[in-house]
Amino acid sequence: MGISQKALLPFVLILLSLFGCGDDQGMSQSFTTQNPRPADFLDQEDADIFVLNGIVYSNAEGLEWVSEKEYTLGEKVGEITEQAKKAEEFGHGTASQLPVGTSIFKTNTVIYIAVVNQREIRYIQMIEG
């Protein structure tokens, strides 16, 4: 019993469509984002940043919404252990302007506080996404 070419054609088309609908393996594009790095800021001579746990924090005192936001000082989350001007010298606890020994505190908001000579300076995380 043989299959006619007319009957075989729909079967072949169904098979082709099934195999054609599979995953594009290697054909799809994927995009990744990463958080800003010290190098992204240090091209500005007056950059005021520090790094804790791989996250860059930037001085936010010039941002109106940050300066208007009320907060409650929370727990200490870090301390500045060194200063650097070159991106490759940055690691945990490194700052571009804050003095060594500066304590960093969380708040009940997105704002972090660096305390220098009893003055509270507002910083925010530089996170992508």
Across the major sheet, the strand order is 3-6-7-8-2-1-5-4
Largest sheet, in brief, is:
8 strands, mixed
What Rg do the Cα atoms give?
A: 27 Å
Task: Output the structural class.
Answer: alpha+beta
Q: Work out the helix count.
A: 2
Helices and strands, in order, run as: HEEHEEEEEE
N-to-C span = 63 Å
Mean pLDDT: 85
Number of strands: 8
Percent of residues in beta strands? Answer: 25-35%
Low-confidence stretches: none
Percent of residues in helices comes to: 10-25%
**What's the overall geometry?**
extended
Describe this structure as you would to a colleague.
This protein has a domain at 38-125. By secondary structure, the chain is α+β, with helices and mostly antiparallel strands. It contains 2 helices and 8 strands. The longest helix has 16 residues, at 5-20. The termini are far apart. It has an 8-stranded mixed β-sheet, with no helix packed on it.
Protein topology:
Layout: H1 5-20, E1 49-52, E2 55-59, H2 64-68, E3 73-79, E4 82-83, E5 94-95, E6 103-107, E7 111-116, E8 119-125
Parallel strand pairs: 4-5
Antiparallel strand pairs: 1-2, 1-5, 2-8, 3-6, 6-7, 7-8
